[in-house]
């Protein structure tokens, strides 16, 4: 039987002390086996599809930006996907802090994926990722990159009214060591997705940082999928499902802590993976169809086609541009770039979004819509 942990009396409150997770598990609910099989197949299809799409790295940045936007929105930001792809000078001053949080997430995930090429997943890597997440934004005074040394809580105005109180900081060290050992304990003979589910539960229960635990916990799942070579690219939108099922998510974690019901959490986690993988495959499929439509439209423009194709190719990673942006992307003059933009607007690929006569912005509306 899974035993989640116990409550420990502190001064005027009780903190939850989870049991170590680096131990063998088994489950009796046959639905978990069915969901595990379906999740494995869905991720396999996503990975295969991502490897077959030509120039897939152009589109992966948009997947990362979508996850960054939605994960940050859960924490209270207001940045939309089109804003996330703009340069800082194009963002109104009152929205730049939110924009920066999204940029931090994009950088944190991209940097971590690159680091996994030479480093194993570890608390060192997660601390570095956390430091990037909280740099120069809300939480910059909450010890970015450092394991907390004071008590935090979830819900409520203070410790006395908190919905959940994670372990006391004095109890963290052996639990952090335990979860890292769990990641690499090959003697457990446990399916990777089950390990990820247990890791996420334990991470959110430990709440090891003063801020940013939600974002980092979701990011951890993507890092594990890539490190385990289940996915070769981070084309995974976890936060969309989370935002729509937030209450069920918290309820599932609570059922583990209060009733040792780990099977409920495993079912929720695997359902989360299944729906996310299927939606990611659908998005990639629609990208392929849209790209073909773009190429057909551009081919009909005759001598202009070469410049238009170059600009659109670059805009798969930056789908909102100004004339200055287009000039840089084409390595050409403003006049030539302006001519390309006008032609793309004419054939319905780009749309002007400001309505201004100056400082205009153009977006690939149909492409962006796939990520909205």
**Total helical elements:** 15
* CATH architectural type of the largest domain: Orthogonal Bundle
Order of helices and strands: EEHHHHHHHHHHHHEHHEEH
Main sheet summary: 3 strands, antiparallel
Short description:
With 372 residues, the chain is mainly α. It contains 15 helices and 5 strands.
Give the helices and strands, then pairings.
Layout lengths: L4 E6 L2 E6 L11 H23 L3 H19 L6 H4 L11 H20 L7 H11 L38 H12 L8 H15 L6 H15 L10 H7 L1 H14 L2 H38 L5 H11 L4 E2 L1 H8 L3 H13 L4 E2 L9 E2 L1 H5 L3
Antiparallel strand pairs: 1-2, 3-5, 4-5
Helix pairs in contact: 1-11, 2-4, 2-9, 4-5, 4-8, 6-7, 7-8, 7-11, 9-11, 10-11, 11-12, 13-14
Explain what you see.
With 372 residues, the chain is mostly helical. It has two domains: 5-283, Fic-like fold, CATH 1.10.3290; 300-369, Winged helix-like DNA-binding domain superfamily/Winged helix DNA-binding domain (Arc Repressor Mutant, subunit A), CATH 1.10.10.10. Helices cover 58% and strands 5% of the residues. It is built from 15 helices and five strands. The chain has helices spanning 30-52, 56-74, 81-84, 96-115, 123-133, 172-183, 192-206, 213-227, 238-244, 246-259, 262-299, 305-315, 323-330, 334-346, 365-369; strands at residues 5-10, 13-18, 320-321, 351-352, 362-363. The strands form two sheets. A three-stranded antiparallel beta sheet has the order 3-5-4. A two-stranded antiparallel sheet has the order 1-2. The protein starts with a strand and ends with a helix. The relative contact order is 0.14.
């Amino acid at each position: 039987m899974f035993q989640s942990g116990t409550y420990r009396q502190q001064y005027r409150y009780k903190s939850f002390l989870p049991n170590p997770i680096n131990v063998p598990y088994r489950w009796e609910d046959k639905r978990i086996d069915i969901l595990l099989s379906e999740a494995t197949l869905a991720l396999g299809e996503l990975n295969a599809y991502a490897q077959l799409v030509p120039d897939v790295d152009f589109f992966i940045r948009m997947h990362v930006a979508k996850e960054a936007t939605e994960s940050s929105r859960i924490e209270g930001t207001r940045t939309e996907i089109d804003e996330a792809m703009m340069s800082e000078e194009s963002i109104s001053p009152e929205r730049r802090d939110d924009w920066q949080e999204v940029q931090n997430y994009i950088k944190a995930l991209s940097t971590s994926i690159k680091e996994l090429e030479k480093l194993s997943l570890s608390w060192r890597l997660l601390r570095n990722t956390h430091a990037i997440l909280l740099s120069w934004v809300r939480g910059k005074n909450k010890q970015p990159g450092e394991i907390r040394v004071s008590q935090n809580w979830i819900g409520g105005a203070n410790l006395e009214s908190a919905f959940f109180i994670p372990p006391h900081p004095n109890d963290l060290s052996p639990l952090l060591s335990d979860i890292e050992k769990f990641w690499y304990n090959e003697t457990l003979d446990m399916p990777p997705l089950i390990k990820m589910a247990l890791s996420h539960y334990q991470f959110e229960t430990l709440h090891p940082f003063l801020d940013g635990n939600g974002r980092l916990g979701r990011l951890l799942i993507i890092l594990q999928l890539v490190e385990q070579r289940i996915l070769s690219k981070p084309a995974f939108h976890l936060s969309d499902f989370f935002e729509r099922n937030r209450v069920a998510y918290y309820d599932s974690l609570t059922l583990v802590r209060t009733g040792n019901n780990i099977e409920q959490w495993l079912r929720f986690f695997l359902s989360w993976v299944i729906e996310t993988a299927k939606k990611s495959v659908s998005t990639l499929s629609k990208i392929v169809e849209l790209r073909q439509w773009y190429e057909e439209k551009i081919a009909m423009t005759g001598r202009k086609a070469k410049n238009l194709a170059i600009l659109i190719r670059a805009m798969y990673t930056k789908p909102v541009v100004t004339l200055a942006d287009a000039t840089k992307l084409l390595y050409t003059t403003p006049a030539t770039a302006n001519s390309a933009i006008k032609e793309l607007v004419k054939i319905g690929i780009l749309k002007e979004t400001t309505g201004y006569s100056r400082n205009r912005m153009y977006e690939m509306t149909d492409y962006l819509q796939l990520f909205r």
